[in-house]
Amino acid sequence: MKLIFHSLVEEDIQEAVDWYESKSEGLGEEFILSLYKSFSLIESHPTVYEIRYAEFRICLIDRFPYTIHYKEEGDHIFVSGIWHASRNPARWLDRI
């Protein structure tokens, strides 16, 4: 299945990368690698994570307290956002 991203996902990722890079050089790149590993898992096994709300599943990224919110839509997977696990869930709902 192919991943399709909400238009604001790139901003979500950049915000996290910038924050991690400000803490330790190279940590942002490690975040990206973990993120791509999670994307690959979602693409190959989209139902491995349980549905949490309104048909959306949540994947916790390895080593980092960030979650990927996605749902299956026909022959693709729609990624609505990538957020820190402590963020207010109302932010997620704005994108669905």
Structure description:
- The protein has about 100 residues and is α+β, with helices and mostly antiparallel strands.
- The chain has a single domain (about 1-95), classed as RelE-like (YaeB-like fold).
- Helix content is about 40%, strand content about 30%.
- The protein has helices spanning about 10-25, 25-45, 90-95; strands at about 1-5, 50-55, 55-60, 65-75, 75-85.
- Helix 1 packs antiparallel against helix 2 (about 25-45).
- The mean pLDDT is about 90.
| Global morphology | globular
Q: Identify the strand order in the major beta sheet.
A: 1-5-4-3-2
Q: Sketch the topology as an H/E string, one letter per element.
A: EHHEEEEH
Q: What's the domain count? A: 1
Q: Provide the CATH superfamily.
A: RelE-like
Number of strands: 5
**If you consult CATH, what is the topology?**
YaeB-like fold
| Share in helix | 25-40%
- Secondary-structure class: alpha+beta
Low-confidence stretches: none
Per CATH, the architecture is: 2-Layer Sandwich
Discrete helix count: 3
* Major β-sheet profile: 5 strands, mixed
CATH first level: Alpha Beta
- First-last Cα distance: 20 Å
Overall average pLDDT: 92
Radius of gyration: 13 Å
Short description:
The chain has helices at residues 9-23, 27-44, 89-93, and strands at residues 2-5, 51-53, 56-60, 66-73, 76-84. With 96 residues, it is an alpha+beta fold.
Characteristic key phrases:
96 residues; 5-stranded mixed β-sheet; 5 strands; alpha+beta; YaeB-like fold
Set out the fold topology.
Layout: E1 2-5, H1 9-23, H2 27-44, E2 51-53, E3 56-60, E4 66-73, E5 76-84, H3 89-93
Helix pairs in contact: 1-2
